[in-house]
Amino acid sequence: MNRLRAFLQEYHPIVHSLVVGTIFVRAAGSMSMPFLFLYLSKHTDMDAATIGLTIGAGALAGTLGGFVGGALSDMIGRRRIMLFALYVWIFVFWGFAYGESPWFFLLLNLLSGLCRSFYEPVSQALMADLTPPEKRYRVFALRYTAINIGVAVGPIIGALFAVQGSPMPFILTGCIYLLYVISLQYLLNRFGIKQIEGQKKEHVTLRKAWDVVIHDAAFRFYVTGAILGAIGYSQMSSTLSKFTEMTMPDGIKLFAILMSVNAIVVVVMQIPFARWAEKRTAMTSILVGNACYALGDLGYAFANSWTMFIIAMTVFTFGEILTFTASDVMIDRLAPEEMRGAYYGAKSFSNLGQFIGPWMGGFLLSQYGGQTLFATVAAISMLGSVFYWAGGRVYTKKTGETISRQPVQ
Questions:
Q1: Please, which contacts does 255-262 make with residues 24 or more away whose CB atoms are closer than 8 Å?
Q2: With bands split at pLDDT 50, 70 and 90, how would you rate the model's confidence at 122?
Q3: Residue 309 has pLDDT above 80, yes or no
Q4: 200, pLDDT greater than 60
Q5: Rounded Cα distance, 350 and 216, in Å
Q6: Do residue 67 and residue 111 come from a single domain?
């Protein structure tokens, strides 16, 4: 009981609410959105290419939307942007349940991508605002664990409805988001976030935020590295399923097991890895994580049994644990305090890798085979490390500080 009380007192109540809320909103979202392709194929006469374009539109909308939402949160406050995004998101999910027109579904997914790109970077920025620097790595690690708990639970529920093509997951998701936004709005008002937001040191405009971000050479190197990393990471949710089907007996079942392994490893190993990473720089975590990505990809390329695929996924997931949290820490270090939202939002530029990766991966898989595909993305992951390292050099030369050095408790 004392340990629980100490844990609750360690972070701001809003931070706790955002972490807990992340479990529910990710569980709800993963109960519906992963099955959108199947749902649209059952409820509309859209062909596969059109459905793919509709779904991909969300990622493209979020590429620029993250920067806009983050910059606006620096200008008018985190609270307003977060609540606006969540309320719009509710109607997006209900729209999926009752919509009929292909153009309407395209609009809904564009709005969904914008809502995600507005809410998530701003919530991260608010968590950083309310947490001392020496505790931010642990907070980001908690948030990442919460994401994976939600993602591990949601698809199991969604799969029960997906076979029938039921709109119920979208209706339930909207209802859960509604309960969450009402409770979050109460807590934001209860704990005086308006007053915290009013303590800004400098007036920020969208134009100024854009100029600062786009002229930050270290940040440009960081984003390039993140795009390259996303190209490799996106294979897990795109070409890996097809590759396992092509190369292994019961490959689809194997892929489902690999997804479970990914979620389980994240939940079990997040805290031990966070403790290891807290004693080192975020740059070290990212470089080691990218090496794990490359080793995992090479494992996929040459795997000839279920066991080898599972080992490769485990190593790949180690890279995911290390890089996802460390990348948040690096953004926190790069960003001027008054533009933290803009920098977290601009991180969404890396979504270009999520758009390029599946297209490139599909081409390499069909033309040259899985070994060439995964060997190539392994090399791309290591190339991303070069850009991260270059960004660190630029930052150190400019400021005399280490980009990734975090205060340690």
A1: 257/306, 257/310, 258/309, 258/310, 258/313, 260/152, 261/310, 261/313, 261/314, 261/317, 262/236, 262/313, 262/316, 262/317, 262/320
A2: confident
A3: yes
A4: no
A5: 16
A6: yes
**What torsion, rounded to 10 degrees, do the Cα atoms 92, 96, 99, 103 define?**
80
77: left (phi over 0), alpha (psi -120 to 50) or beta: left
CATH number at residue 166: 1.20.1250.20
Last residue of a domain, one of 192, 222, 242: 192
Per-residue pLDDT of 379-390, as tens digits, reads 999 999 999 999
pLDDT in tens, 32-64: 776 676 677 777 887 766 776 677 677 778 777
What pLDDT score was predicted for residue 8?
A: 64
pLDDT score, position 34: 63
pLDDT tens digit string along 229-274?
999 988 887 788 788 888 998 887 788 788 778 888 888 898 889 8
The b/e string for 344-372 (b: 16+ C-beta within 10 A; e otherwise) is bbbbbbbbbbbbebbebbeebbeeeebbe
What residues have CB less than 8 Å from 177, skipping those under 6 apart?
25, 28, 86, 89, 90, 93
Is 370 domain-assigned? yes
Last residue of a domain, one of 133, 157, 192: 192
d(CA 21, CA 183): 9
Would you say residue 404 lies in a domain? no
| Number of independent structural domains in the chain | 2
Query: Residue 53 corresponds to which amino acid?
Result: L
Mean pLDDT of 53-81: 78
CA distances for 335 relative to 117, 137, 338, angstroms: 18, 15, 8
Domain annotation covers residue 70: yes
* Distance set, CA 134 to CA 169, 214, 280, 371, 409 (Å): 39, 28, 12, 42, 6
Domain that holds residue 62: 8-192
Domain-located, residue 26: yes
Query: What is the average pLDDT across 207-219?
Result: 75
Q: 279 — alpha (psi -120 to 50), left (phi > 0) or beta?
A: alpha
Q: What is the pLDDT of residue 235?
A: 86
Angle between helices 13-32 and 168-190 (to 10 degrees): 170
